[in-house]
Design goal:
Layout: H1 6-18, H2 26-42, H3 46-59, H4 65-76, H5 80-91, H6 110-121, H7 125-138
Helix pairs in contact: 1-2, 2-3, 3-4, 4-5, 4-6, 5-6, 6-7
Length: 140
Amino acid sequence: MFHELYEESISVFERLNTNPDSDLKTIEKAYCFFMTGCCFYHLNREMLARDYFYSAIHADPTYRDPYIELAKLLIRNEGYAQAEFWLKECLKKTYRHMDWTEVNDVWTSVPYDLLSVACFNLGHKKEALMYCARAIALGP
């Protein structure tokens, strides 16, 4: 995936997730779904990307990364109410896996930045300011 071989990456991730003999841990299964979603996003197949982000969330609800990428996708497509919902769900997740599957951005100001954008566009100005202040406090 990091070499932009998205189609090939999708095949590998799907094969890993559907192999009955696979001994993937829950977080690794979620990571495969998440990365498949990222590949589809890069291929401009946003509906499939969204579905895989949902699958990643379902596979391991404690894994924050798919919540953030799903919210970014929703915000780009003006799905502010859905983005607000998923970001608030993301912020309820406090367990850090502390392994190679996590992107550190999900534990910084990023969720609050995105949530302020979603709230602002929904007309929730006070809430947007609150999240913006939190984002600034975490990442000036």
